[in-house]
Write a structure and sequence with these properties.
Number of strands: 18
Number of helices: 12
Oligomer: single chain
Structural class: alpha/beta
Largest sheet: 7 strands, mixed
Bound molecules: zinc ion
Shape: elongated
Helix content: 25-40%
Order of helices and strands: HEEEHEEEEHEEEHHEHEHEHEHEHEHEHE
């Protein structure tokens, strides 16, 4: 029979505590801890997390490249789950609903928020998995509006990459304004890259996938990439010039951001080309302005997505326009193995943590 203390602990774990993977500052290992579950306040919902995608951003936190100055904080911004309970002012009908989380909460008053560009809000009230507790946990509390309904045709694990991977691709694709018949290069094939390849193909652009991994290139071809360039075998820019018959690319999505990839991308960019930065590393980007002037090129950055773009991303996956790619699902306790596989570039698609079934 359980002793009094053990019984009490079991009760607490079941009703009040949860496991969570937390960031403790640059260069420090993440820690698996037992935490209080935060009860939903007015306008909020408590989500039982069933799938939580692992994004490259977590590696940037770990290495210290991305330091937002908030620690400790629970990682995870690609979150799917089931609404367990609701706070005041939220319809109890939502209990049991399957949802994917929108990870920004802007001030909802500034000029960016007013037109829906909440991801650019200078006064964010929360950014889950960045400066606010995210979904590498059994439970997560978010405003009801941030819990976006998921159709039953998409499984939890399959849905996890929608929260960041697919939404980031949707947002970047819009900024790039790629058109029918244009040459679109996706440089670096991860959670975002797979989405970009499919979106570019869907609008009738001609797609070139670039990666150092044969497995990722094969998957990109399977998803509609017209050409696959192995960056370990050929000078990438030269190959892109050859494929485009000298013209160069109209759009390059830079999902790697190393000195080498940025150099190749800028050389491969054609007239009126748009070089869109999504990924980054410690390296800086250099370009002579004469190239931008003479070829009327644009260099831009793309971060996150709007709430509406999350709705669009869910819709794209539901309609089969975009397929999410999941390499493996892991229990929360095995987050380290997921992170190291991601770091080694072994994953073809996402590793998804499954905190609770
Ligand atoms: Zn992400
Ligand atoms: Zn705002």
């Amino acid at each position: 029979m359980m002793g009094d203390w053990a019984w009490r602990r079991a009760f607490l774990v079941q009703w009040l505590l949860m496991k969570a993977v937390r960031y403790y500052g640059p260069g420090q290992p993440f820690r698996l801890e037992e935490r209080d579950r935060r009860k939903p306040e007015a306008g909020e919902v408590l989500v039982q997390v069933t799938a939580s995608g692992m994004c490259h951003t977590e590696l940037h936190f770990k290495s210290g490249l991305l330091d937002l100055g908030v620690a400790p904080v629970t990682m995870g911004h690609e979150v799917v789950g089931r609404i367990e309970s609701v706070g005041e002012d939220v319809s109890p009908d939502r209990v049991g609903e399957r949802v994917v989380v929108y990870y920004y909460l802007g001030c909802l008053r500034c000029a960016y928020c007013r037109v829906g560009n909440e991801h650019l809000c200078p006064n964010l009230r929360a950014e889950y998995g960045f400066i606010s507790d995210g979904g590498y946990a059994e439970y997560m509390t978010v405003p009801a509006r941030n819990a976006v309904p998921l159709p039953s045709s998409i499984s939890d694990v399959e849905a996890a990459p929608i929260g960041c991977g697919v939404t980031t691709a949707v947002h970047a694709a819009k900024l790039a304004e790629s058109k029918v018949d244009e040459w679109v290069v996706v440089y670096g094939i991860g959670g975002v890259g797979f989405g970009l390849i499919q979106l570019a193909s869907a609008i009738g652009a001609r797609t070139i996938a670039v990666s150092r991994s044969v497995a990722k290139l094969n998957k990109a071809r399977e998803l509609g990439a017209e050409f696959a360039v192995n960056a370990t075998e050929v000078p990438t820019a030269e190959k892109i010039r050859e494929i485009t018959e000298g013209a160069g690319a109209d759009v390059i999505f830079e999902c790697v951001g190393t000195e080498e990839s940025m150099k190749e991308a800028s050389v491969a960019l054609g007239r009126r080309g748009r070089l869109v930065f999504i990924g980054y590393s410690p390296d800086s980007f250099t370009i002579h302005p004469i190239q931008l002037v003479v070829l009327e090129q644009k260099v831009l950055g793309s971060v996150g997505a709007t709430l509406n773009e999350l709705y669009e991303a869910v819709n794209l996956v539901e309609r089969g326009v975009v397929r999410t790619i999941v390499d493996r699902a892991l229990p929360l306790e095995q987050f380290e193995s997921g992170l190291s596989a991601l770091e080694r570039g072994e994953l073809v698609g996402r590793a998804v943590l499954v905190p609770s079934e």
